[in-house]
Amino acid sequence: LTEQIKAIHKEYGRDDQFIEIYKLCQKVKHLQLPKEVAEKTERELNRLEQMPGMSDEDAISKHYIDWILALPWHKKSKDTITIQSAQKILDKEHAGLQKIKDRILEFVAAQKYSQDLKRTPTICLVGPPGVGKTSLAKSIAKSLSREFTRISLGGVKDEAEIRGHRRTYIGALPGKIIHAMRKTKTINPVILLDEIDKLAHDITGDPAAALLEVLDPEQNKTFVDHFLDTEYDLSKVMFIATANMLEGIPYPLFDRMEIISLSGYTEDEKIDITKNFLMPKNLGEYGLQAKQFKISDDMIHMVIAQYTKEAGVRQLERTIAKLMRKTIQVLL
Predict the structure, then answer these.
(1) Beta 123-126 vs 238-243: how paired, if at all?
(2) Phi, psi (rounded to 5 degrees) for 185
(3) Which of 18, 65, 241, 322 could covalently link to 124 via disulfide, CB atoms 3.0 to 4.6 Å apart?
(4) Helix and strand tally (H, E) in the chain?
């Protein structure tokens, strides 16, 4: 029967289109999609068979099916991390921040103990610039042995950026959340929502309101993107938000997140960070050896006390880098 249909399509000059649709059907079958998604995709494929090739509707339908095929529906990151190795990863990459480290280790322990843990916490790291919120989120993903991606929310003011555009619009695309899922290729990644306090809103909608469904553990298993127009399960995703000020976070969002405050570093912690993190990183960047650039604790203390007045360590890193460049200038 397939050969007869192929022959008919060949007579009409549509054999290439038939082969392409047949391949898409096979891929959809292998994916084992949820029932509702499978029915919707099947209807779209049936429509595609009836359309003339190279039409606008044909391109829209293929674009939709490509997105369905590209999204992860069942693939999970394998949990191979022990509590001890997670502790080592967090300690190696960040000095101090004991409160947040304890919270992550609690979550790792809960995951190990209960394999059927459905609810994943949404953590919001609040602190001044430069204290390591974004890099900490990467370390959390590594300590959980999960894929990581970052979504910048600073200045986002259109609801469609989160929920996607309906397919009736020309050039419609899914929102940032579905884009992140396609990028990570797993159903349980760590997604960083950066600068959640910098969300804006105007006549095109309120993205903070669209995020309510994403961040609510009771609702996000049935998240509906306007482009997909079908339910997608986000319940296994770990969302980590970052913010500089609590006041900028809308209250309904604030209520759905577990707030962890990161205060500025003490002077002793800054000295420790300089010696164990900033100096090795910058030595590698500039191609210097440790014996070529030596700096005493007293000198680091003076740089911190007199040249950098900040809660984080960004200005401190710039000052250390400046000293290294001066060293290179002398060496040359």
Answers:
(1) parallel
(2) 65, 15
(3) 241
(4) 15, 7
What are the tens digits of pLDDT across the range 255-294? 888 888 887 777 887 888 888 888 888 888 888 887 888 8
Residues 144, 189 contacting (CB under 8 angstroms)? no
Work out the number of other CB atoms within 10 angstroms of the CB of residue 69: 15
β-bridge pairing 123-126 and 148-152? unpaired
Q: Which residue's entry shows tokens 């959809």?
A: 28
Q: Side chain identity at 291, as an amino acid letter?
A: K
Asked if 297 and 274 touch (Cβ cutoff 8 Å), the reply is: no
- Residues 89-102: pLDDT tens digits? 877 777 777 777 78
- This prediction has a pTM of 0.79
String of DSSP letters for 79-138:
----HHHHHHHHHHH-SS-HHHHHHHHHHHHHHHH-TT------EEEE--TTSSHHHHHH
- Are the C-beta atoms of residues 201 and 208 closer than 8 Å to each other? yes
Name the amino acid, one letter, at 56: D
What distance in Å separates the CA atoms of residue 91 and residue 206, rounded to the nearest whole number?
Answer: 39
Is the separation of the CB atoms in 166 and 208 below 8 Å?
Answer: no
pLDDT score, position 12: 62
Tell me how far the alpha carbon of residue 139 is from its chain's centroid.
13
* Euclidean distance between CA atoms 87 and 104, whole angstroms: 9
State the DSSP code for 263. Answer: P
- pLDDT tens profile 139-148: 888 888 889 9
Rounded Cα–Cα distance for residues 93 and 73 (Å): 32
